[in-house]
User: Fold these one by one.
Assistant:
Number 1:
Amino acid sequence: MTEPLDERLRDDAALDEIELTSRLMIAASATDRHLTAGEVDELLGLSARRHRTEPFG
């Protein structure tokens, strides 16, 4: 029998990030094209995308 995990070691933010990254990887691997910005936003649970006039960087 295994011992219960110490809840102090649980990192909910990291678990959420892993979940979102997993969704993106699964969706990207299921298609032979690039995901659109709208598709990525939807996978990340964003309701509306804010469009930028300048590229990131």
Number 2:
Amino acid sequence: MKKLILLGVCLVFVIIVSGCVQETSPTQNTNNYDGSKEVSTPSTSQQKSVCGDNTCSSDESQSTCCIDCSCSTGYVCNPSLNKCELEKPKITFSYQVSANPYSVSVLYAMPTETINKDNPMITCSVSNSGGVASSVQVKTKLGGYSDWYTENIGTVNKGDNKQFSTTPRVESGALSLTTDTNVPLSIQLIYKDSSGQEYKEDYSKDVVIKGRNTFSWAYPELTSAWVTSDDPIIRNFATESTQGLAPAYAQDDIAPAVKRIFREVEAFGVRYASDPNGPFGDYLQFPVETLSTRSGDCDDMAVLFAGLLSAVGIKSGVVLTTGHAYTWFEANGTQYSLEGTMLGYGVENIITPLSQRLKENDVVVNTQQEWNSGIKRINLPTPPAVSVPSISINLQNPKSRLLVIEGVVWDIDIAFTNTGGQGYRCLTVYNTDKSTGYRRNEYVLCTNVPGGSSTKTVTLDGDAFKEYTFGYYVNRE
């Protein structure tokens, strides 16, 4: 009996164990007809996601698996850390410097906008294949002759390619350059990423800057930069030349003032000479240089007289024509030409109505308008020394003589004292009728007066003067 019970318990145990093995076994072996065995795996209802399978499953996110789940805009996945990080800008910068050399006068006097429009010094390209680049700037500098000049580009997004032109400005110290000079051009590219971190890249290249007297026909309006009416020497010369005329230069006094200035320049010894420095228009002297050298070609004379006339408030400018240049001025609403190359031949034929001289392709430069538009006058940092005429006049005591027919007459000594450079004065001496007080017996005296603290005394023959009260006035012309 006990044996039967024990046998039954063993059978039950075997049955239970067999059932457990069948439930936990992952595979089943099936005998095929050829005697081989086939292993099969039972299906499961759900598999766990795996990071890196290129599928962003519901239980994955940017923070747990950025490899499968893409990062937000502006961020990229770091696969080694499996973490989204800020996308840095990937900037490609290139630049091209113009092959045309620039004169230091162009860089100083011309508005940058004009240069960049017509003939920029530097053409740049900024492209970005990475994250957003903000506050993008390109700065340029020409050696020690300028401060940093900044072009603000703004934001360069991913895929952008921005192109622009820039030209650095120079300071007045650069006007000391008189010959072609190699100058280092420095360029800085500055930008920030989305976190505010700043990046800076530096580039450099030598460029040739031409001397201050180099003039280019590409900018005919640039002649107004040479019309230096605010130069103290030019202003003093013009003021000294026009003593005695109305300070505000009424319209009727403009033509006399022009002739006075012309005569003063003529007496100072300035004469026309062809330009030994190159073809017409390539080399242009500044007015103070022409007074210093006492010579110049047509374009030198044109800017000299335009500067002198402007210095005393006369509206004037320069006319550029084929192979020639001359001054124009306005009086009583009419424009006239002034031919500066006639120095040494008097004033008879120097003034002509402008309408009679203008040709179809002539360029009339209105200096005042060009100054107002942004062109700067070029005053040399170290101008040459020029001794401006400074002439005083003194009528000395008359000396009487007895003539057989006329009776007593008076000789008059007129002393011209000049403490400056050689100049010119033209005056009228008169005597006054004692009984009526009217002027009478006027005598015109014009003379060149040597410079160098000299005194020139001119004696007027007293045949016409029979009274003791004398006076003079400086002629209008």
